Amino acid sequence: MISVHPQNVHQFQKALIRNSLQIAVQNSHQNDDFESNAVEESRDTLTREATLVALNRLTKYSSSYLGPLAIANYWKKSHASLVTLHPSLEYWKIDYQGQISCPFISEQIAPLTSEQLQDVQTWVRAFLKECERVIVDFSQILLSKSLSADVSKLISSVE
Known about the structure:
The protein is mainly α. The protein has helices at 9-43, 48-66, 68-82, 114-131, 138-144, 149-155, and strands spanning 93-94, 100-101. It is built from 6 helices and 2 strands. 64% of the residues lie in helices and 3% in strands.
């Protein structure tokens, strides 16, 4: 305990500064924990727009092996087989060249829920399974390529 006697004022000031710094450090650690949790949470999912880009990159990678029409058919076939069990896939559309779109532009900046991301990963697994009917180790070939982080996230559940 420090008295507020004139000769102890400097010790009192030091104690106040030390306590203030300890509180600031504790608050900083709490903010860091919050920010790291938010960053980890954002790493666990993708926005609709990032997912769309990743799916179309996967189409591009795959088309060099199987051709765009085959890829489009595999995407459509796997989509049709899953859309009743995974309703969030209903909003994804595939054209005849295998380009994937999602008409809900206003929702593209919001992150997918974990369930929506799992649905997309299930769709990607089904798509890759279709591709593997022609090229047996197709998933392994893709995994050996330098894929973007978002594409890797979509196919990571395949490993």
